[in-house]
Write a structure and sequence with these properties.
Blueprint (H helix, E strand, L loop, with lengths): L11 H12 L14 E3 L2 E4 L4 E5 L4 E6 L5 E7 L20 E9 L6 H4 L3 E4 L4 H5 L8 E5 L13 E4 H7 L9 E5 L4 E3 H24 L2 H5 L2 E7 L2 E2 H14 L3 E13 L2 E12 L3 E14 L5 E12 L13
Parallel strand pairs: 3-10, 8-9, 12-17
Antiparallel strand pairs: 1-11, 2-14, 3-4, 4-5, 6-7, 6-10, 7-8, 12-13, 14-15, 15-16, 16-17
């Protein structure tokens, strides 16, 4: 059960109804206008885990639950780096901006209580996009501070919450699966805008899936970034691997069930349940794809895939033994 100091919204439907009433405004003629509810633009699809969103300008950490649209479960004050702006290098005292994942939980005596309070969660900063951009540094965590330290002090780059809050936040966290999105300032969009953007991304991946399934490798290769890495292979090795599969299997069938679409600027993270079948081999797993959103020459949503990671759902398979990547 959630702690009261987290200010939880216990009934999401009631919250949705209440928020609708609050934001209704009246025209000059005295008629109620249609309510416009807005959502953070970074969460396009989420069927899996809670998402943490940090707004650096407003110094707030919000928790959004999975569902058709992102509904806020809780919101708390948060501290950030002493210096303004996006982190670029080690010891610049800035908090990075992007999509990260909380990876490991630390508690005293693993960490000093006077610096990190009763609990900390590490992140995967620098992520793939950060490394390609030449950003340096590490040790960007979500952590607490003792009650004697104000949240206005400023950190070395970490996201910091009150010591009373961190133990309740852990109830929302699944390690290596809960995203931590950090933005300069939250950009709000309507449900129609979210749906439109989501469909454009899904349509782009549907075209990619069809090319993969038909083994049209020349067009398929156009969806991959020159610096692609996946399964321990670069782009050239990856396409050679696909050519070998094409010569081995006469036909393949791929079903994708999207679970998560997150965006930050032109970056995306796309996670799907993947069912791969051929005339000789089949596997099932979760695929996480990272890359860049782009507009193609026809004005449609384009994607450039930077990395793919595949995790089997069958315990008899391993991530290094699959052929259907």
């Amino acid at each position: 059960m959630l702690k009261t100091h987290l200010r939880p919204i216990r009934n999401a439907k009631f919250y949705f109804f209440l928020k609708t009433l609050i934001i209704i405004f009246f025209s000059p003629f005295g008629f109620a206008a249609e309510a416009v509810i807005q959502y953070p633009q970074n969460i396009l699809l989420n069927k899996q885990n809670n998402v943490f969103l940090v707004d650096k300008t407003n110094r707030r950490l919000s928790v959004y639950q999975p569902g058709p649209l992102p509904v806020k479960l809780a919101e708390q004050p948060a501290d950030i780096g002493k210096k303004l702006g996006d982190k670029q290098k080690r010891n610049d005292y800035r908090t990075p901006e992007g999509v990260y994942f909380l990876e490991k939980k630390l508690t005293p005596p693993e960490i000093p209580y006077d610096l990190y309070g009763q609990m900390a969660f590490t992140s995967n900063y620098p992520n793939l996009f950060d490394r390609l951009a030449g950003k340096t540094g590490d040790g960007i965590w979500l952590h607490a501070v003792p009650e004697s330290i104000p949240l206005t002090r400023g950190s070395r780059g970490c996201v910091v919450v009150d010591n009373k809050v961190i133990s309740s936040l852990q109830n929302f966290i699944e390690l290596k699966a809960t995203p931590l999105i950090i933005v300069s300032q939250t950009q709000w969009v309507t449900s129609e805008q979210i749906e439109k953007r989501k469909i454009r991304v899904e349509n782009a991946f549907e075209q990619w899936r069809k090319l993969w399934e038909s083994q049209s490798l020349e067009a398929y290769a156009g969806y991959y970034h020159p610096q692609f890495q996946g399964g321990g292979m670069d782009k050239r090795a990856w396409l050679n691997h696909k050519n070998k599969i094409k010569s081995k299997y006469s036909q393949i069938k791929i079903d994708l069930n999207p679970q998560l679409i997150l965006s930050f600027n032109n970056q995306f993270i796309f996670q799907v349940y993947q069912n791969y079948q051929s005339d000789q081999y089949q596997d099932k797993g979760v695929k996480t794809i990272q890359g860049y959103l782009d507009i193609d020459t026809n004005g449609a949503q384009g994607i450039l895939i930077l990395s793919e990671e595949w995790t089997p759902v069958n315990s008899n398979q391993t991530a290094t033994s699959q052929e259907g990547v």
